[in-house]
Amino acid sequence: MRVKYKREGGNAVFPSLNPPVEISTEEMPEEEASRVKALVNEADFFNLPPVLSTMKPGAADYQQDLITVEDAGRSHSVRLTDSVENHPLQNLIDYMEKTR
Questions:
Q1: What is the DSSP string of 26-78?
Q2: For the whole model, what pTM was predicted?
Q3: Cα 6 to Cα 15, 58, 76, 79, distances in angstroms
């Protein structure tokens, strides 16, 4: 499984301080790989819509997250704004943020 995470936008986001993150469960210890797979499964990631939340008209300075998961020949991406109501998905985002 490969997970890619990218944060864009916002008032104080600098690309050099927020580089994209990409991890592969094949390149990590088995226990850590199991944790990543569990986070993806708990978020029911492959059943989430491609755009999970939208910005309100006139809204500015929102951060957007783009998460892509590739596993067993399938790939799915989800884009969302910085207010996440899906707590399991937030757990995956938090994990990816910590891997920076």
A1: GGS-HHHHHHHHHHHHHTTGGGS-SB---PPTT--S-EEEEEEEEETTEEEEE
A2: 0.87
A3: 10, 23, 14, 10
